[in-house]
Amino acid sequence: MAVAGWLESTAVEAEWFDGPDGTALVDLLTGAYNVCLAYAPVPPATIPPEWKTAQLLQAKHMFARSKAGNGDTLGPDGYAVSTFPLVLEARNLLRPKRNPLLGVL
Question: What is 3-47 written as a DSSP string?
Answer without folding.
Answer: EETTEEHHHHHHH-TTS--HHHHHHHHHHHHHHHHHHS-SPPSS-
